[in-house]
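Structure catalogue
Derive tokens from sequence
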Amino acid sequence: MAISIASLAGLLKVSGSGVIERARFAWGSVGPAVITSDELEGGLVRRPLSRQTLEEAASLARQLVSPIDDVRATAEYRREVSGNLLLRLLDYSHGSARIE
């Protein structure tokens, strides 16, 4: 049985100059249903794809989720991971955008 502690599906469209043109995210296993946020996604548009930008988004993501404690993880751990998953986008974007 494979059950996620937290999951994130994300899509970023980034211009050649490294500016976010579109963002879509969906978190799983951190609330009663899949969590999305127009506010978070819209707040990234027209901003540079940078560690600072994603750290700010990660902070908001941690506030958006409403996880529970169970035998696999605490709610606080799931909250932290939910934000950290956004920071992994920097790893996947290497070479396709300018990261500051």
